[in-house]
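[Discussion] Sanity-checking designs against the backbone

I'm trying to build intuition for which residues belong where. Below is a structure token string of 152 positions. I'd appreciate it if someone posts a full sequence so I can compare it with mine line by line.
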């Protein structure tokens, strides 16, 4: 499963299964804009479980956060961002970060132990995913998050 592929049957419930695509798109866009990950002129379209994101991200990390926020919504199985830009240039994602799919029994502490060899560094993961994870104690299996390679 790549960055742009997600499990459609899990995630944050933003819209109903029978909502028309325009309403689904509006709710995903509203969800992303509410956390303001750093994407200007954001436009979202949804069709058959595929969200397409357009806009200009301030950084590769901001675009990744928007992709993860859209993809971690229930009913979205894929996110496309080919028309998005980063600082006005063709979009490139951060090369040094990894992505992780949360498994049953995971905690941010356990994920930090795997990633950094030290569970107490879980806050770096939480901060890198603040728009995706509102509470570090409320993560769920199947949720996709960023694992920053550089600790702050």
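Best answer:
Here's mine. Compare freely.
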């Amino acid at each position: 499963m790549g960055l742009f592929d997600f499990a459609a049957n899990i995630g944050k419930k933003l819209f109903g299964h029978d909502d028309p695509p325009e309403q689904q798109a509006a709710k995903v866009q509203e969800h992303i804009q509410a956390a303001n990950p750093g994407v200007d002129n954001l436009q979202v379209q949804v069709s058959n479980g595929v969200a397409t994101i357009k806009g200009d991200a301030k950084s590769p990390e901001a675009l990744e956060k928007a992709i993860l926020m859209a993809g971690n919504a229930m009913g979205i199985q894929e996110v496309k961002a080919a028309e998005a830009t980063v600082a006005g240039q063709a979009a490139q994602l951060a090369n040094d970060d990894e992505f992780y799919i949360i498994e049953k029994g995971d905690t941010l502490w356990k994920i930090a132990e795997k990633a950094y060899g030290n569970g107490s560094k879980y806050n770096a993961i939480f901060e890198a995913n603040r728009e995706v994870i509102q509470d570090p104690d409320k993560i769920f299996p199947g949720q996709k998050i960023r694992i920053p390679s550089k600790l702050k």
